[in-house]
Amino acid sequence: MRRRGIDLRLWVPLGVLVLTIVACFVGPMLLGPEAGQQALGERLAPPAWLPGAIDGRPLGTDAFGRDMLTRTLEGGQVSLQVGFGAATGAVLVGMVLGLVAGYWGGWCDRVIMAGADIWLAFPFLVIALAAVAVVGSDIPVLIVLLTLGGWVLPTRVTRTIALRVRSEDYVVAAAGAGASDLYLVRRHVLPQVLPANLVVWSFTVGALVVIEGALSFLGLGVKPPTASWGNIIADGTPYLQTAWWIVAWPALMIVVTVICANALGNALRGRWNAGADVIDKEVVP
Amino acid sequence: MTEMTEGVVASVDPGATAPPSAGRGRRGRRARRLGAMTVRLLLTLLGLLTLLFFLVRLSGDPAGVLAGPSATPQQLEAVRAGLGLDEPLLAQYAAFLGDVVRLDFGTSVFSGESALGTALGALPATLVLLVTTMLVSVAVGIPCGVLLDRGGRVTRAVVGTSMTLAQAVPTFVLGILLIYLFAVRLGWLPAFGSGTAATLVMPTLALATFAIARTARMVAAELEQVEDQDFLRTAAAKGASTRRVLWRHALPNAFPAVAAALVVEISYLISGAVVVEVLFAYDGIGKELVDAIFARDYPVVQACVFVIGVFVVVVNVVGDGLLRALDPRIARARA
Amino acid sequence: MSPVIALEGLAKGYDIAGGARLTAVDDVSLTIAAGETYALVGESGCGKSTLARMAAMLTAPDAGQVSWSGQTVSQQRRSAVRAVRDHTQFVFQDPAAALSPRLTVEEAVSEPLRIRRRTGSRSVADLLDDVGLDRSMGRRYPRELSGGQRQRVVIARALALEPKLLVLDEPVASLDVSVQAQVLNLLADLQAEHGLAYLLIAHDLAVVSSVADRIGVMYLGQIVEEGPAGDVVTTPRHPYTQMLIASVPAFVPGERGERPRVVGDPASPTERRTGCAFATRCAFATQVCLDVAPPRRELGDVAVRCHHAS
Amino acid sequence: GGGDGDADAKSVDDASVTIGSTAISNSLDPAAALSSVGRTYTKQVFDQLVTFDEDGEIAASLATEWERVDDTTVDFTLRKDVTFSSGAALDAAAVVANVERVLSGDPAYATVAGRIATVKEASEVSPEVVRVVTSTPDAILLNRMTLLDIVDPATFDADRPAGTGPFQVTGYEAGTSIELTRFDDSWRATDSVKDLTIQAIPNPATLSSALRTGEVDVAYGLPADVATQLEGSGFTNVHKPAGSSAITSLIADVEPALADVRVREAINLAVNREEFVDAVLGGFGTPNGSQLLQKGYLGYDDSLPSYEFDLDRAKSLVSEAGVEGLELPIATTALFKAPAEAVAGYLNAIGFKSEVVVQDLSAFIPTLLMKSEYPLLYWQTDYYDLRDITSVSRFGPTAPGQQAHIPVNEYQDLYASQSGELDEAKREAQIKQMAKILNDEAGVLFLAWTDNLYTVAPRISDLPLSGDSLVRAEAITVSE
Amino acid sequence: MVDRRLARPDDRRHGDLRERARQRAAGPLERRRRRDRQGGGPVTAALEIDDLWVEAGDPDDPLVLVRGVSLTVAAASVVGLVGESGSGKTVTCMASLGLAGRGVRITGGSVRAQGIELVGADERTLMRVRGGVVGTVFQDPLSSLNPLQRIGDQIAEAVMLHHGGRRRSHHARVVELLAKVGVPAPEQRARAYPHELSGGLRQRVAIAMALANDPALLVADEPTTALDVTVQAQVLDVIRSATRDEARSALIVTHDLGLVAEVADRVAVMYAGQIVEEGPVASVFQDPQHPYTRGLLASRPVLAAGRRRLGAMVGRPPLPGSWPAGCAFAPRCPVATGACGEAPPIRTSDQGWSRCWHPGSGETTATSRAEEGAA
Ligand SMILES: Nc1ncnc2c1ncn2[C@@H]1O[C@H](COP(=O)(O)OP(=O)(O)OP(=O)(O)O)[C@@H](O)[C@H]1O
Ligand SMILES: Nc1ncnc2c1ncn2[C@@H]1O[C@H](COP(=O)(O)OP(=O)(O)OP(=O)(O)O)[C@@H](O)[C@H]1O
Ligand SMILES: [Mg+2]
Ligand SMILES: [Mg+2]
C-alpha cells in the first residue's frame, strides 16, 4: 500500500500513536487543571451532542463530574507510560538476555531459555495480582512488573537471531579474520537484532497496555483519583446503562492504541526482512 | 524391473534410521525428557509457591479480617496467635514446605474447609471454560484462518478487520459489552453465575475472541507458509481437488504449529480466565484465587496456585505428547 | 614443492541429541603445497566442511594436528592460531550467506583489515580489480549483485589479508553453469598470479577434474583415495571412486553404454562400525572388509584405503 | 422502612425469592461467619436470646424474660417448645454450649467472640434458665447477646449447623450461593416464602443486570447510582438508617500537620455533605457534620452544630496553617473507593494533594485497628450491630503499639468509663460529652449517616427489615 | 531494456485466450504440426505447448515470465528442457499443468495433454489430467512429500483419486509401484514417513506416485538436482526405465546438460523466458546453432584428466523484468551485431530450430577471460 512514496501502513499507525501520546501529555495542560477536578453537581453529564450536555465537557463527565476528555487523556498518560515504559524495559532486558543466551550459549543459554519456558507456562496475571497487592501500584512498580510480563518474547527473538547470525558464513568469515566477540556482536549481531526487537517492542506495547488495563480493572492499578484507562473503565462499568461514555472513551483509546501498535509492528516487520521469519514464529501477531 | 539390492538402507540424516533397539531407546529418551521437564516445572512450582508465600504474607493479614473492624488490639493479637502468625516467618515457611510435600495445604482461614479441596472444587468449572474456549477458538478460528488466506478480496478484508479488532479489544472490555448486550439489552443470557450451559456462553465468548483471532492468524500464516511447499503441488499434481489439497494436506500440516501455540497459550488463557471469572462471577479457580488473594486466605492462595501449576504442567506434558502424535517429524526434530 | 599446510590424523566428532556420537572426520591426513590445488570430493555429509574448518583453524580437532610450513600449530596458543588464520581464508558455498546484507562491497572487503587494524599492501580497489570487479561496485550492497559477483566479492575479501591458503568450500555449487565457469577460471588466474594454495571442496568430480592438481576422495569421514588428479580420474582404484566416476552423466549422448550399477545409500555417520565404511555398498566386499578397517596403502602416487585395490 | 407495596397486588404463598449480594456469608456456621454480610444468612436460619425490634429496642427472641441478678450477672428464661431444624429441642444446656464454644479461643470464632468479649461464662440454672456472667459490669450485655446465634450443639461440627430460625439450608456452594428452604416447625415460620437463595455476585454491574433479568429479587450492595437508575424501571429501593457513620479518621501520628486544629477544621469545611450524600450515596443517607451517633441511639445530641461546607473559609484556614500542597492520601477498601475518591476531590479543591489508596480488607483492618501509614482513613463505622458507641472501640484508649485516632485524653477516659456505667442516664451524659469534644476538636471528618440499601424487584411488594437493618425473609411479601 | 511491445501485446487482457492465440502469427511448431497432420495422420502428441505466455504480479504492472513458448513432446519420446536459473523452465511446466503458484497467470497460448486442452479448463478436467494423464515429479524429494502421511498412503491417494475406492484397497498396487521404482522391502517401506527415508528413496517414492496411474506423460522438474552424485545416477536409472522401457513420454526439466544427454531424445534450450533452440539431443549437442547453447556446452566441466580452462560466457542470465529488447542473449553474445537489437527470426532445420540472427556461425563462443564484473 505504498502511495506516492509514503508507506501508509507504517505512517498511519505511527502517526496515530504519536498523536495519542502528544494529546495525552499536552492535552490536559491545554484544557486546564479545573476540567479534571471533581464537580459532583455536574456528574454524569452526556457528551456534547446529547441533550443535557454541559458546556466545556465535550465528551461528558463521569460520576464525580470530572471532564471525560481530560480524564481520558490523563488516563492515557498512565497507560501509555506503563505500556511504553514496560515494553522498552522488556525489550532491553530481552535483548541482553537473548544475546547472552544466543551468542554465548552454553549453560547461560540453557538457564535463560528454561527460565523463559517456565515463565511463559505460568499465568502472568496471577503473579502480577499477588505482586501488586504487596508492593503497591505506583507507575514505576507497574513498569517493572510489566517488564517482567514481557521479557520472554524479545529474549527468544533475540536469541534465535543471534544464534542464526552467529553461524552465518560472513560472521564465521569475520571470526576467521580474527574478530573479537564484541566486534561480532556490535557489527553483525546487533544490527540484525535491533530491527526485529523494534517490531517486538511495538507488539509488546499493545499487549502491555492491555495487561495494565486488566490490572487496573481488577482494582490493582494506579491510585485514584489518578486515572488510567483500565480504572476509568472499571469505575464506569456500573454506569454502562446510563452513562456509557465513561467506559466508551477509554475503551476506544485502548483499542485504538493496540490496533496501532500491532499495525506498526506488522508494518515494521514487512519493512525489515531480517528476522521476520523469527518474529512470525514467536510473536503473537 | 531392477533388482537393486541395497545393503543397508540408511538415511543420511543422523538419527533418522533407528537401529533395532531404537524403539526402546527412543521411548526411554522420551520418558527421560518428559521426566526432566516435569521435574523442572515442579521445581518452578515450588519456587512460585515460595514467592507467593512471602509476597502474600508481607502484604496483609487474615487475622484482621477474622477479628473484624471493631475488634480490640488484644483480640487481634489473640487471633494471630491462634493462626500461628506470630511465629517467625522462616519457621512458618519451613512448616509450610513440610506440609506442601505432603500435599497438605491446610484449611481455609475463613471457611475452615480444606484448601486443596476448595481449589480442586473450583477447577472443573475453569476446565469446562477452558475446554469450551479451546473448542470454539479452533472451530471458529480455523475457518476464519482459511478465509483469511484463501478468501476473496472482500472476505479477506472483512475477516481481517474482525480479527484485528478481536485482538485489540481487551477481554474485560469485551466482557462488559457482552453483558450489556446479551444480558441487559436482549435478556438472552444470564448475566453471571456458573453451573449451567447458559452461563458458559458469555465467558467463553469473552475468552475465546482473542484466541479465535490468534488461531485464525496462525492458521493463515501457516497456510501461507506451506502454500509454496512442493507437497501441496504434489497433491494437486496427483489430481486432488483444491478443497482436498486444503483440508487433507495443507491444514493438517498447518495444525501442529497452531496446536503447539495453543498449548503454550494455556497460560494466557488462564490469565484471561481470571478476569473473565471475576467479571461474570463464574466460580472457577481464577475467581477463587483472586478472592483468596484479596482476603489473604493464605492456604487457599497456595493451593490454587499449586493446582493451576500442576494443571499447566499436565497440559504441557499431554500437549507435548499430542503434538508428537500429530506430527511424526517432531520426534526427530527435537530429539 | 614445500607443503604450505599439513594435516596429520585429524579427527572430529559431535555429540548429537540422544547421546549418539557422530564421527564427522576420522583420521585424515593430507598436505598441500604452495600453488597447488587440492580438491576434496565426496557426498553430502561425509565431513568435507568439517575438515576444511579444522584446516582453517575455525574448529579445533579432537585429535591430530595442523602444521604450517612444517611448524605444528598449537591450538592452545591464541597467537599461533591467529597467525594461521591470517594465512588461511575461507570461501563459502553460498555467496548470498557469506556477505552481510548490511555492509557494502567495500566495507565487506576491507572488514578483515579493519578487524586486524592493519592496512594491507593492496587497497580495496586493487582487490576488486584482482577479482575482476569494477571499482564502482564498492558502494553497492550484496543484494544489488549477481551470484557470480557476490562470489567474487567473497574471494576479494579472502584475499585482503594476503593468505597463503584459500579454503574453498563448494565455491561454485550454487552458481549457474555459465557463471560457474567464470569463477573457476578466476580462481585459476589468481592462483597463477599469487601462488596461492587451494583446498577446494566439491561434490562434483567433473568440476574438480578441470582445476585440481591432487584429488582426495572422501567417504564417511575418511579419505579413501588420494592422488594426482589425472590418476584418480583415469584409473580410479577405490570402488567408491569408481562408483563416483560412473555416476557422472556422460556428456556426449551415446558415448557410454550401460554403466556399472550404483548400489545403496551412504551409511549413517552415527553408526558404529567395524571394517570398511564402504563395505555396505561395495560390489567387491568380502568378509575381511566387514571385519577389518582397511589401512592407508600407497600404490604409486596414489594412496587408497581398500583391501582389494591394486 | 418497608417496600411501598401495592395494596391491590395479590400476595402469593410459598414463593421463591433470591437475594443477591456482593458477598455472602463465608461459612454456614454463624459463629465463624464474618461481618454483617454473613448475617443476611444467619438471620434467617438462627435466633438469638434477644433481638432488636423494628424500632431498635431490645425484644424477646429465644429468651422471653431476662433479669439482672447483680452488676455482672443476668438470667435468661428460654421460650418453650422451640426446636432446632435438626429436631432437637432448645434448652439451657444448648445455650451454654454455644457460649462456651465461642469463647473457646478458636480464632475462627474471633468476630463473635469479640462482640461478646465481656462475657466470662454461662451456666444452666434450670433447663429453661441460662445464667450469663460478665467479667466486669457491662452496660450493653443485652445488646451483645443479640449477636450470639444459637446453634444446635449436636450440629456444631456438621456441614450444615442447625438453627431455630424459619429457614434451613438445603444447598451450599462456598462463597457463591446458599439455598434455603422453609423450616416449617420453626417458631417464626410463615407461609409466604418457601425457598430462599442467597447469591453472591461481586461485580455490581453484573448484580444490577441480574436484577433486571429477574435472576435476583433483592440486591444488596449495589452502588447508589445504579440503585437510583433502577428506580426508573419499576424497582424499589428499600433503605433504612443503618446506624452507621461515614467518616474519615485524621491521624496526626502519620501527618503531624493534622495536629493543627485549623487543618482538621479546614478538612471538615471542605466537604459539601449534601452534595456528597446526593451524589455518592445516591441520597440514601443523611448528611452529618456533627457526631458519630445518629438519632435514636443512646447519647445522640441534636444540639451539636454541624460543619457546613465553606470553601473560602477552608482555603483560608489552609493558608493560615501554611499547609498548601500537603499530601493527604486516603486509605480505604475497595468497597468505599468511590466515596473516598469524592473526599479526595474535595480536599484537592482546597489545596491539598489527596489520592485514594485502596487496600484489601486484610491489609486495611490492621491499618485501622493498629497502625496506619496513611494519614486519612475512610471507613464507615457500623454501630448498629450493637446499637451502641461501645462498638467503636478504635476511638477508645489505645493499647501499646496502637495509633490514636483521637488523641484527646479526656475523650478516651470518658470512653473507658461509660462502658462500665450501668446507670443509663449517667452513661448518656458521658457519651454526649464525648461527642461534644469530638465536635469541638474536629477530630474526625464526619460525612454522613448512611442507610442500608436493598433494591427490590417489582414482584416483591414488601421487604421488611429488622431493627438491625437485616432482611426478615420469612416476612417478605411476594405479589403476582 | 524490456521490450514493452513484446511483453504486453495490446489485446492480451481482453477476449478469449485461444482465439487470440490463433490470431497471432503461427509459430514454427504450429506450422510443423499442421504439416505432420496432413502427412502422417492424427498422431496425438503427449504434450503440446503452443505459444504459451505466462505472467505474474500485479495485473496492472505484470511481470512477464514466459513469452511464447512452444514445445511438443511426441508420444514415447523424452524431451529435456534446459536452461539456467530463472530462465522460466519451472514456470513453463507448472503453468501448463495449472500448478504454478498464486498470482501466476497464463495470458496466452494453449496446452494440450494427450489432446486435452488445459488452458482455461475447468477444475474437473485438470484433476482428471493431473496424475491420470500427466505424472509429475519435483526437485526436492523431501518437501514434495507430505511429512505427516505414510508414503504408502500418499501413493494410494494418487491411485484412489483416479480409480476411486478407499486408500486401503489399493495396497497391492502401492507395493507393486514401490517395487517397480526399486524401493527395497516395499511392504515395510510403505508404512514409513518421508523423513525416515533417505533422499534417493524419497525421490523414488515421488516417482512411484507420479507413475501411480500409468500416465502417458511424466513431467520431472530437476528430479536429481537435490541428490548426491551417486544417488543421482540411481534415480536417473529409474526415470530411464520408466520412460524408455515403458514407452512413456517425458518432459525433463534440468540445468544439467549431462542428464539430458543421458535420457532425452530431444532438447529445448531456454533463455530469458523463450526457447532459443530445439532439436534432437545428438544434433544440438554436436552442432549447436544458437550461441547460447554453444556457451552452455563450453562452460560445462567434463570429467577428464588434466587442468584446463573452461569456456565461460560473459555476464549472467537476465531475470524477468530486465530482459533486453530484441535478442535477449545479445549483450552476452560474442557474435552479436546490430541486427540483434531486433527480435531474431526462427530458423528451422529438418530436425530442429533456433531463434538467432547468426545461427551456427561461431566456431567457439567462449571467451577466455570473461568478466561480467565490468558489465
Ligand atoms: N556442529 C555440528 N554438530 C553436529 N553435527 C555436525 C556439526 N557439524 C557437522 N555435523 C555433522 O558432521 C557430518 C559432516 O558434516 P560436514 O558439514 O563436514 O559435511 P560435508 O561433507 O561438508 O557435507 P555437505 O556436502 O552437505 O556440505 C554431517 O553428518 C553433519 O551433520
Ligand atoms: N509467482 C511468481 N511471481 C513472480 N516471479 C516469479 C514467480 N514464479 C517464478 N517467478 C520468476 O520467474 C522466473 C523463472 O522462474 P522458474 O522457476 O521457471 O526458473 P527455472 O528456469 O525453473 O530456474 P531454476 O533452475 O532456478 O529452477 C524466475 O526469475 C522467478 O523468480
Ligand atoms: Mg559442506
Ligand atoms: Mg526450476
From TrEMBL, chain A:
One of its GO terms (cellular component) is plasma membrane. This is ABC transporter permease. It holds the Pfam family BPD_transp_1. CDD domains: TM_PBP2 (cd06261). The keyword Transmembrane applies. GO terms for biological process: transmembrane transport. Belongs to the binding-protein-dependent transport system permease family. Keywords: Cell membrane, Membrane, Transmembrane, Transmembrane helix, Transport. It is found in: Cell membrane. The keyword Transferase does not apply. SUPFAM superfamilies: MetI-like. It is a multi-pass membrane protein. InterPro entries: BP-dependent_transpt_permease, MetI-like, MetI-like_sf. Residues 76-265 form the ABC transmembrane type-1 domain. The chain crosses the membrane at residues 12-31, 78-104, 111-133, 139-157, 196-222, 242-264.
From TrEMBL, chain B:
The chain crosses the membrane at residues 34-56, 127-148, 160-182, 188-213, 254-280, 300-323. One of its GO terms (cellular component) is plasma membrane. Coiled coil: none annotated. It is a multi-pass membrane protein. Residues 123-319 form the ABC transmembrane type-1 domain. Its main location: membrane. Residues 1-29 are annotated as: Disordered. One of its GO terms (biological process) is transmembrane transport. PROSITE patterns: ABC_TM1. It is found in: Cell membrane. Keywords: Cell membrane, Membrane, Transmembrane, Transmembrane helix, Transport. Gene3D superfamilies: MetI-like. Residues 14-23 have a biased composition (Low complexity). Belongs to the binding-protein-dependent transport system permease family. This is ABC transporter permease.
TrEMBL record, chain C:
It comes from the Bacteria. The keyword Plastid does not apply. Pfam families: ABC_tran (PF00005), oligo_HPY (PF08352). The keyword Transport applies. GO terms for biological process: peptide transport; transmembrane transport. Keywords: ATP-binding, Nucleotide-binding, Transport. One of its GO terms (molecular function) is ATP hydrolysis activity. Residues 5-245 form the ABC transporter domain. InterPro entries: AAA+_ATPase (IPR003593), ABC_transp_ATP-bind (IPR050319), ABC_transporter-like_ATP-bd (IPR003439), ABC_transporter-like_CS (IPR017871), Oligopep_ABC_C (IPR013563), P-loop_NTPase (IPR027417). Belongs to the ABC transporter superfamily. NCBIfam families: oligo_HPY. This is ABC transporter ATP-binding protein.
TrEMBL record, chain E:
It holds the Pfam family oligo_HPY. It is a peripheral membrane protein. Keywords: ATP-binding, Cell membrane, Membrane, Nucleotide-binding, Transport. GO terms for cellular component: plasma membrane. Its main location: membrane. Residues 1-42, 350-375 are annotated as: Disordered. Belongs to the ABC transporter superfamily. This is ABC transporter ATP-binding protein.
